[in-house]
Write a structure and sequence with these properties.
The protein is built from 23 helices and 15 strands. The longest helix has 22 residues. The two termini are about 45 Å apart.
Length: about 550
């Protein structure tokens, strides 16, 4: 395979481990834990893995000789920069336990476990993927592990390969599945550990113990580079408004981080829209007001950042989606043979009057996507809704009305962008390369500690990587009960943008200045080599959150 000069240079990069993981370690137990909410119900559903203590790794001055251990690894869900380094760290970690340890990668996600499709990951394979982006070493998938039949089928190949532990690298839904799998294997004394690793560029898998999910740092730096490029062009041509949709279905962390990095004229934060009970027209009016205000000074240009999940946070539409989910779940048999207009008519007939009115107020293509398109987890596929085009069209219409009223005398021309897949498989930043390698190596330590139902946790992330701390937290600690597909289910609680948090407060304190004045920042591409202040810095979100503490 031909490699670029950068690929060759990155292959030689040595991720920096926390000092505590460079020698033998011992697991020190902290206090017992409880779930973030719905404690009685989560405990009832996870009697064998609930209430476990937090673990912290410390130097072990009297290490015991290790034994060979076979481990299976699964990449689950969407790609995120650094996944290959998690696997590299896991590989090196189990080889440190014993040189005869073996790592098996299940192909194309959890489905590979169920279908018994795997490869053994050797040093020759691993070395080709160190510090690279993507999940192509074994592929990823979105198969949900949720039935006894799946668990038992997976156990067959686990036993055949003499696998002691499964490491599942994924986001909140994937790690929820990991918790369920850990509970089941523990309940039948299968002798198989399950360890999770926190992955998602969306940034919504975090708490006090998981300071950030891997991939967020790299993806937001990739997006910020391109946003900066667009803003430089925008400030040069001075004739276009750029509407830029960014990934982030369930939270606006990506949009907020990119706004802090690039200082656009407008950035919509979905959580604020919901908190203020804004309608879609309210959002449109707020954008149009900024466009008109800038036009008064001859600035008929600007940038607007839009989180892809915005539609789901508008209260009236959120209420509509909730009822749509219930209608589809409750009438699955009645609707399975319906399609097109027949299905749409059936759904509308089963909606309340308020929600039907909301649905009918939306453009036809948006209404159709809300009714019909779902991902394997039952979520509306908001990335398919061209929110950036919907908003710019509605803003254009609003400005025509304002012009007729003498409130707008400028020009408005819109261009549209969606930055999503561009950032998911980028070569990891130095931060993510180090963080991911540490997460994988740390997962090997959790395997060696004999625990199950834990997530690999690396903390103190604003310090140099050698000062990071390592350990594990019970996955059940992060869980609550949510209504999904017409039923209450245990899931990891998503971390939304906190409007009282330091990153949002920093943004809110400056956005009025950014809206009227052209304060663009141009971050440039990810720097892999150079001074630490250029190439080793974590996200601004992490920095502001730690300063707030």
């Amino acid at each position: 395979m031909k490699k670029s000069p950068l690929q060759k240079a990155r292959a030689a990069y040595q991720p920096k481990l926390p000092i505590v993981l460079t020698g033998a370690v011992k697991a020190v137990e902290g206090n017992p834990t409880r779930s973030v909410a719905d404690q009685a119900e989560i405990q009832r559903l996870f009697p064998n893995t609930y209430g476990l203590p937090e673990l912290k790794f410390e130097k072990n001055t009297t290490p015991a000789a290790g034994r060979p251990v076979n481990v299976g690894v699964i990449l689950s869900g969407g790609q995120a920069p650094g996944g290959h380094n998690v696997i590299s760290g896991l590989f090196d970690g189990i080889k440190k336990i014993h040189r005869d340890s073996r790592l098996f990668g299940f192909l194309m996600g959890p489905g590979g476990l169920v279908d018994h499709k795997y490869i053994e990951l050797t040093s020759a394979i691993i070395d080709d993927y160190r510090n690279t982006g993507g999940f192509d070493i074994i592929g990823s998938g979105r198969t949900k592990l949720e039935t006894k039949e799946q668990f038992d089928k997976g156990l067959e190949i686990v036993k055949e390969l003499n696998i002691k532990a499964l490491v599942i690298i994924g986001g909140d839904d994937s790690n929820t599945n990991a918790a369920v799998l850990a509970e089941y294997y523990k309940s039948i004394n299968a002798g198989v550990q399950v360890i999770g690793c926190p992955k998602t560029i969306d940034g919504d898998l975090k708490n006090e113990c998981i300071e950030t999910s891997f991939g967020f740092d790299t993806a937001t730096k990739v997006y910020s580079e391109v946003i900066g490029n667009i803003q430089r062009d925008c400030n040069s041509a001075k004739k276009y408004w750029h509407f830029i949709k960014l990934m982030g279905r369930s939270a606006s962390h990506i949009a907020l981080e990119c706004a802090l990095q690039t200082q656009p004229n407008i950035c919509i934060i979905s959580e604020e829209v919901e908190a203020k009970n804004m309608t879609l027209q309210d959002v449109v009016n707020s954008i149009a007001d900024v466009v008109a205000a800038r036009a008064e000074y001859g600035n008929n240009f600007g940038t607007v950042l839009i989180p892809e999940g915005l539609i789901e946070f508008i209260p009236a539409i959120k209420k509509l989606i909730a009822e749509l989910n219930n209608v589809l779940a409750a009438n699955a048999d009645a609707t399975k043979d319906l399609a097109g207009e027949a299905l749409e008519t059936f759904i509308k007939e089963h909606l309340s009057a308020d929600n039907r009115a909301t649905l009918e107020s939306l453009p036809d293509n948006v209404a159709r996507q809300l009714m019909l398109d779902r991902d394997p987890h039952g979520n509306v596929q908001v990335s398919l809704i061209e929110t950036e085009k919907l908003l710019s069209e509605m803003v254009g219409n609003r400005l025509k009305t304002m012009a007729a009223e003498g409130k707008f005398k400028g020009k408005f021309s819109a261009l549209h962008h969606f930055f999503g897949y561009e950032g998911r498989c980028a070569d990891p930043s130095n931060f993510d390369a180090d963080y991911c390698y540490a997460l994988g190596f740390n997962a090997a330590c959790l395997v060696n500690a004999g625990v199950t139902g834990y997530m690999s946790s690396i903390r103190n992330l604003v310090k140099p990587s050698v000062q990071w701390t390592a350990g594990g937290i019970p996955i059940t600690m992060m869980m609550n009960i949510e209504h999904r597909n017409g039923a209450d289910k245990p899931v990891i609680q998503k971390a939304l943008v906190r409007l009282d948090g330091a990153p949002f407060r920093k943004f809110a304190s400056q956005r009025d200045d950014w809206s009227m004045n052209t304060c663009y920042v141009y971050p440039g591409p990810i720097q892999y080599f150079g001074p630490a202040e250029v190439c080793d810095q974590p996200s601004l979100t992490l920095l502001y959150e730690h300063k707030d503490k």
